[in-house]
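The methods section describes the discrete structure representation at length, but only in general terms. The central task, working out the structure tokens from the amino acid sequence alone, is never made concrete. Nothing conveys this as quickly as seeing an actual entry. For illustration, here is how one protein appears when written out as sequence plus structure tokens:
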Amino acid sequence: MKFYILFFLFIFAVLYLRTAHTEPFQNNSNIVIALLCVCPTEIVINFAKKMAKSYKVYIVCDDIYCHTPEEPSMTFIKISDEEVLEAHYTKSNIAIGKIPSAWDKALYYFNVKNMSPSHVWFIEEDVFIPRVSILTDLDAKYPTADLIAKQNVRQEEDPDFEWWFDAEELTSQPLYRSLVCATRVSRKVLNEIANVVRNHGRLYFIEIMFNTIVHEKNMELAMPEELSAIIWRHDWRDEEIDPNHLYHPVKMLTTQKRYREMLAKVPNSGVEAFRGMR
């Protein structure tokens, strides 16, 4: 009898170890994706469906009156300007004219209405993502990072950046910045953002706020190569596009669709073309 028990335990241990070492990345940390847009097009929704196979997907619609389909694989977030203004989640994206912005609404949603995610990928709709597995690979590589962003530029390294003043009004901490068109933020960072609202009655520019909080609180930062093609302004050529980077800006969503179809023809690219014409 003792022999059979030992044999069973041995078989169980072998199967467990084999499974642990061969299973692909699984989203056990409640990492979610928030796509930021005015109103999602069919192209955005179709790619979001692919994302939904690996993540819980939220689409933040700045236009609360835009038509969105009944789609069980994702959640459409529509929050009025008045609600966000009343909660003081404002001025996180002063580089655009509209206050509150989709960024304000996204930060409000994940700090007030839904605090369950451990990490949130915030991605603007003009970011081209060739394949979802870029994100899952980054999550597997940096499971505990509080911020995954393109860069970490200290104020002294770029004194001419025009938005430093916005943070100087609220914090005396050394200031850092990064482009955040595609970035992953932890719950710890989101909690500190909530503290900014409580202490100051508003937010400050996201390109400074995320990195400055991470530096101030000695949190974990990752700056992967995959985000190196996040650029403020650039006209991308076809030959610059590969399946292993995220690209910004690609404002024409039909161009994103064409890039994905182009890369899908490359052997072993891992990129899938998909339907969606608008």
Summary: The longest helix spans residues 2-22. The chain has one domain: 31-155+163-264. Strands lie at 31-37, 56-61, 74-77, 119-124, 147-148, 153-154, 176-177, 182-186, 221-222. Residues 31-155+163-264 form a domain with the Spore Coat Polysaccharide Biosynthesis Protein SpsA; Chain A fold (CATH 3.90.550).
